[in-house]
Amino acid sequence: MSAELQHRRPSHLEALKRALDQGTMRQVHRHVNAMHPAEIASLLESLPPAQRELVWELVDPELEGDVLVELNEEVRAGLIREMETEELVAATEGLEVDDLAGLLRELPEAVNQQVLRSLDAQDRERLNSVLAYEEDTAGGLMNTDAVSVRPDVTLETVLRYLRMRGEVPDRTDALFVVNRSDRYLGVLHVTRLLTEDPDRTVGEVMDTEVAGIPPATPAIEVANLFQDRDLVSAAVVAPGDGRLLGRITIDDVVDVIRDEAEHSVMSMAGLDEDADMFAPVVPSARRRGVWLGINLITAFLAAWVVGRFEATIQQIVALAILMPIVASMGGVAATQTLTLIVRGLALGQVERANAKWLFTKEIAVAMLNGFAWATVVAAVAFVWFRDWRIAAVIFAAMVVNLFAAALAGVAVPLGLKRFGVDPAVAGGVIVTTVTDVIGFASLLGLGTLLLR
Known about the structure:
This protein is mainly alpha-helical. It folds into three domains: 3-135, MgtE N-terminal fold (Alpha Horseshoe), CATH 1.25.60.10; 148-249, CBS-domain, CATH 3.10.580; 281-451, Orthogonal Bundle (Tetracycline Repressor, domain 2), CATH 1.10.357. The chain has helices at 3-22, 25-33, 37-45, 49-58, 61-70, 73-81, 85-91, 97-104, 109-118, 121-131, 138-141, 155-165, 190-195, 202-205, 219-229, 250-267, 281-307, 310-315, 317-346, 352-385, 388-418, 423-451; strands at residues 148-149, 174-178, 184-189, 233-237, 244-249. The strands form two sheets. It has a three-stranded mixed sheet. It has a two-stranded antiparallel ribbon with strand order 4-5. β1, α12 (155-165) and β2 form a beta-alpha-beta unit. The longest helix is centred in the last third of the chain and has 34 residues, at 352-385. The N and C termini lie far apart (60 Å).
């Protein structure tokens, strides 16, 4: 979402609420339909269900399809359930093939069949070519509106061809060069087309360094390619014969990056990035309750460890006072490491080849911080309780727990990734349990040995 949109959305929401409170539906209608479809979608996501349904009824039919495409999955699904079949079919008219493919995956089968019947043969073939691939792959992201040219024609011929077309697809920064078998060869940048000698051929000025993207490439890898190579558009090519299938544009990649960022942030709390913020209380409580229950089980595990040292705690109250310090420091250290590793995995920066070096580095960081802060805490504990043995116990427990935090922060997400589990979802619960259990066990275990 752009900075401008972030800045403007609150004013849209406030103006709409004033209009709704005053009951001036004509003003609401005019205000809503003057907005961009993405702004309407953001506005709908910011409204409670009753007001959302009212505003959705005021959206002009020709905008409904574009708005549905921009909505998150849960809000979109709720609106689709309330729409008639004819209304849904009408909403799909005029959508770009990649947007239409994404929307059809969520529509009822009866609606899908009607939409397919409403398309001409060429558009139906284009749509089926996109639907053949998973949504979160290059093939699922691509649009089939790529403009292609041959390498043996002159730039003047290309310019005449474009003038005959009358228009080019949005976000066209380059034309794709193919041979007679539609095999992708490279790109002809529009800037070269406009500035080079018109008598030169496409083959002489085309860029052959921009590789095509296989359709099965995961969407996040596509986003990384666009970021690393500063691309505005890229060709999608068949893996066997290199045939041009379509193109991916920067607007689709921005959506991927935004979705990945939301996923990382929300998953850390065990939440779904597509969840409706204004969903009813019961579904929201049920969704969050699952992870609260999992966390409760891990909390009982930590409590069981503490219970094993009940006699020690009764005799040495100082340990009970110091327990939160050990657990808190370990939890923060583990979360820091976990966040870095999850981010690295998402960006493709952490792999088996560099995991050993990263593990060693995180252990070294943990030991440096462990000895430094354990010294501080031990000094405070000695001044507080006037007992060098208590200071030694807290010192050793903190060093051990920060070592365990680094170990868990690296090993847990890598292990979960290897077994196909999203580390952003499950990693936090596991590393917190590890640091709690190790922290309490080391503090109370050492206290039992040295202080009783």
